[in-house]
Design goal:
Radius of gyration: 21 Å
Largest sheet: 4 strands, antiparallel
Strand order of the largest sheet: 1-2-3-4
Strand content: 35-45%
Structural class: mainly beta
Order of helices and strands: EEEHEEHEEE
Distance between the termini: 25 Å
Helix content: 10-25%
Number of strands: 8
Oligomer: single chain
Number of helices: 2
Shape: extended
Length: 144
């Protein structure tokens, strides 16, 4: 991400009903290139009303996620990974991380939940695992 550079993105506005937080609105901003929702604002309905009627410095809560990936593009691949899903559950995360480690090079990160998932299982000891990584975006020609 380059400070001051403009990026293409998406903004979404949402509200959960029936959860006890009916007065809270979420505003999410995502990078158009890789769909990372990097900013999530939470604001009350009353404060949102104040904001859209031009009151300045309205209070909100926010979370930043994945800002180091803004402006990059995401790549995907699938690998067959050997993994035995039996044994103590408390050790499952460590066993999964160990199984993925040889594949997690050059920025690739595997989805831990694919290991042990019957929908990804090929046979008793092999799973189809999705991997992703973020790379510098390729420059494209401007649309005329």
């Amino acid at each position: 991400m380059q400070e001051g550079k403009e990026y293409q993105g998406f903004i979404s506005l949402g509200r959960v009903h029936g959860s006890g937080k009916d007065d809270e609105v979420w505003i999410e901003v995502a990078d158009a290139g890789n769909r990372i929702e990097f900013l999530c604002l939470k604001i009350s309905l009353a404060d949102l009303a104040s904001l859209i009627t031009q009151e300045a410095n309205v209070s909100c809560r926010f979370a930043l996620r994945g800002i180091q990936e803004i402006g990059k593009q995401i790549e995907h691949k699938t690998e067959i990974v050997s993994y035995q899903s039996f044994g103590p559950r408390k050790d499952a995360k460590t066993a999964k991380e160990t199984a993925l480690k040889p594949f997690e090079v050059d920025g690739w990160r595997g989805h831990l939940d694919d290991l042990g998932n019957m929908h990804c299982q090929i046979d008793s000891n092999h799973y189809r695992v999705a991997f992703h990584r973020y790379v510098a975006a390729r420059e494209t020609e401007p649309v005329s």
